[in-house]
């Protein structure tokens, strides 16, 4: 909420270790808190889009059903076509090219990016490079990804 008051246009919620939990522990200990965060922000700032990055969460159907997140970021361990089936067109997907792909040839980067885009669907999608650039990535490879 302080970020919104300071002028942030989108509130990112990062849950970096959520994929380490079992579905039962996630439901018991985490889900209600994530729903409460989204509900609390939307109650005060209904027009501010909220994004969540639940790293390695392979069982996020309940998050989609119960929460008010506008964007769900998925990492490269999740199949984007399955994610799109779960969220439909009511939530924006963000993700999910594995950053190490940038160590590949230009042709491989283009191919993997095209595959990613085809799985994401035609609407409500933000292309993203996993966790971002690694220190030893060649910036020219990032441009190949962007152009693709």
Describe this structure in words.
43% of the residues lie in helices and 15% in strands. It is of the alpha/beta class. It has two domains: 1-73, no CATH class; 74-147, no CATH class. The chain has a five-stranded parallel sheet with strand order 1-2-3-4-5, covered by helices on one side. The protein is globular and about 45 Å long. It starts with a helix and ends with a helix.
Key attributes of the depicted protein:
148 residues, alpha/beta, 2 domains, five-stranded parallel beta sheet, 43% helix, Uroporphyrinogen decarboxylase (URO-D) domain-containing protein, uroporphyrinogen decarboxylase activity
SSE arrangement:
Layout: H1 2-5, E1 11-15, H2 23-44, E2 50-54, H3 61-66, E3 71-73, H4 80-87, E4 92-96, H5 106-120, E5 125-128, H6 139-147
Parallel strand pairs: 1-2, 2-3, 3-4, 4-5
GO molecular function, one term: uroporphyrinogen decarboxylase activity
Protein name: Uroporphyrinogen decarboxylase (URO-D) domain-containing protein
GO biological process, one term: heme biosynthetic process
The outline comes out as globular
Distance between the ends: 36 Å
Report the β-strand fraction as a percent range.
Answer: 5-15%
Oligomer state equals single chain
Helices and strands, in N-to-C order?
A: HEHEHEHEHEH
Secondary-structure class: alpha/beta
Rg of Cα set: 16 Å
For the sheet with most strands, the description reads: 5 strands, parallel
Proportion of residues in helical segments? 40-55%
């Amino acid at each position: 909420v302080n970020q919104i008051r300071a002028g942030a246009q989108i509130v990112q919620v990062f849950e970096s270790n959520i994929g380490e939990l079992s579905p039962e522990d996630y439901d018991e200990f985490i889900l209600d808190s994530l729903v409460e965060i989204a509900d609390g922000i939307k109650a005060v700032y209904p027009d501010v889009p909220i994004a969540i990055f639940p790293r390695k969460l392979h069982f996020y159907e309940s998050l989609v059903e119960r929460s008010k997140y506008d964007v769900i970021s998925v990492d490269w361990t999740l199949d984007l076509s399955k994610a799109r089936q779960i969220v439909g067109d009511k939530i924006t997907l963000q993700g999910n090219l594995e950053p190490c792909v940038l160590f590949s040839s230009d042709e491989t980067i283009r191919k993997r990016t095209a595959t990613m885009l085809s799985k994401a669907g035609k609407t409500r999608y933000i292309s993203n490079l996993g966790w971002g650039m690694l220190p030893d990535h060649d910036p020219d490879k990032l441009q190949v990804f962007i152009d693709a």
